[in-house]
Structures are given as C-alpha cells and as structure tokens.
Amino acid sequence: MDIKKHIVNFKISVIGSAHEDEIDAKTREKAYKVGKIIAENNCILLTGAGRGISEHAAIGAKDNKGLTVGISPANNLEEHKNVFKAPYSVFDILLFTGFGYKGRNVILIRSCDAVAVINGGIGTLNELTIALDEGKQIGILEETGGTSDSFLKYFQKIKESRNYGKQVISSRDPKSLIVRLVNR
C-alpha cells in the first residue's frame, strides 16, 4: 500500500471574549482581520466554537476561503445550539468534546500550534495559562482590552523567572502578530 504524505497546515487557536457586550466595534474588526490573515497564510483557524471574538475571527477566515474548526464544549449539535447558544454555520468542522468549557479549553489549546489572544475574560485567562503550561507560542493583540492587556502587564513581571521569555509576543497590528506567530 502506498502511503501519501499530507501537509498539515499550521493551526492557530483564536481566543477571547464570548460576550458581545464586552467587545467594541474596533476589536470585532480586529478579530475579523485576524481570521482573514490566518486564512491568507494558509493556516487553519481553531476556536472554542463560541460567540464573540471566536465567531468574528471564524467569519474573517471563512470570507477568505480559510478552514475553520470549532472545538465545542457540548456533547452534540443540539446542545451546542440550544444550551450553549453557540454558532455553528461558520465552522467547516465542529468537534463536540462533551467536556464543558474547561475541558474544551484543554483540547483547544493542545490541538493548536500557536494561540492568538484578543480581549477576553476569565475563560480566556484559563486558556492562556494552559497555553503557557503546554509551551505554546502565544501572540497577544494589544489594545483590545480585557484579559489580553491585563495578561501582558502581568507577563512582563514573570517572564524571566519562569523561562517564558520567548513564548509570548505582542503587537497592535493583526497582520504583524499572525505573521510573527507563523514564522517563529
């Protein structure tokens, strides 16, 4: 039997707030641009399959012919739509973990090559700490508020003592951030 080699594209998880009321129009546009740039760089976009930042990034990728994968906390599509009130049509692939948010977060982060952080709350902080522990490359989109900006300040204090120095990058520009993550 002849086994063909398949090129596996670089996978970037986009994480951030799922609460639309916490995200201003400028940050929504940045999330869309991040998704667009991920698609333009032939990367695969992964998200936690929720609303907010994840959905805007997925739309940006889809509008630019990118592959989108949602990692859902739900057991099935019915629970995803009705209990978690989460989008589904923006994803090419929707994987149901059945592990709730925290279990989903571990699978999401372990499934990617790098993480892009935009805004966020406590769930995003949970994903960030998992990404640090897993040794993932992390890119923080600056000036988007929430966890991303707060974490960046905290990270400056701990990066040397914990050997995280080269693991986290940041930028105000979505294109610069994604290109730097892909080329690390």
UniProtKB/TrEMBL annotation:
Q: InterPro entries from the xrefs?
A: LDcluster4, LOG_family_nucleotidases
One short Pfam family name for this protein? LDcluster4
Mind telling me which GO cellular component terms the entry cites? cytosol
Superkingdom of origin organism: Bacteria
**Which regions form coiled coils?**
none
State the protein's name. TIGR00725 family protein
Tell me the lineage of the source organism: Bacteria, Candidatus Brenneribacteriota
